[in-house]
Amino acid sequence: MKVDEVMNRTVYTCKPNDSLKEATQLLWTHDIGCLVVTDEAGKATGMVTDRDLLMCTHLSGRGLHEEIVSSAMSKQLYAVRAGESVQAAEALMQSKQVRRLAVIGPEGRVVGVLSLNDLALAAGKKKDVRPEDVAAILASICQPRPTSATARG
């Protein structure tokens, strides 16, 4: 099974200089957990999640209207091609401990988002996604990541 058979084709985006208030409104309005951050040319440069927004404003002590997306977004974008196998996407999600991947089309533009939720729904519909693979991805995501405090010993 290919990524484009499982992914969500509706992609909501924002720009790095958009306010976190604008980003939060998009997340709330569309009942989604992430936005793909794009540059002026429409190229994906990162991703911002509802958790990113919360942690950024909490730690900075500033309001949503005072912070911009670039202060909260992940600078590392993990992505797969639409024609790649779901198994390759699952392996990337596991190794990078992420719940979502941007999906890139033939022209290099974002054409979708593949989430752990999409995989779980596909497994529930008895598609070529195994429930045990979804569980393995979730288990890897839930593993604590080394932080600067734990890395120092």
Quick structural overview:
The chain has helices at 20-30, 50-60, 86-96, 116-124, 131-142, 148-151; strands spanning 13-14, 34-38, 44-49, 79-81, 100-104, 110-115. By secondary structure, the protein is α/β, with parallel strands linked by helices.
> Topology as H/E string?
EHEEHEHEEHHH
Radius of gyration: 16 Å
Number of domains: 1
* Overall body shape: globular
CATH architecture: Roll
Name the CATH superfamily classification: CBS-domain
State the major sheet: 3 strands, mixed
- Beta-strand content estimate: 15-25%
Poorly predicted parts: none
Determine the structural class based on helices, strands and strand pairing: alpha/beta
The top-level CATH class is Alpha Beta
**Total helical segments:** 6
Seen as an oligomer or otherwise, the chain set is: single chain
According to CATH, the fold-level topology is: CBS-domain
Output mean pLDDT. 88
Biggest sheet: strand arrangement: 1-2-3
* Span of the ends, CA to CA: 43 Å
Describe the structure.
The longest helix is centred in the C-terminal third of the chain and has 12 residues, at 131-142. The protein has a single domain (3-151), classed as Roll (CBS-domain). With 153 residues, the protein is an alpha/beta fold. The chain has helices at residues 20-30, 50-60, 86-96, 116-124, 131-142, 148-151; strands at residues 13-14, 34-38, 44-49, 79-81, 100-104, 110-115. Strands 1-2-3 form a three-stranded mixed sheet. The chain has a three-stranded mixed sheet with strand order 4-5-6. The radius of gyration is 16 Å and the shape is globular. The model has no long low-confidence stretch (mean pLDDT 88). It has six helices and six strands, in the order βαββαβαββααα. It is 38% helix and 18% strand. β2 (34-38) and β3 form a beta hairpin.
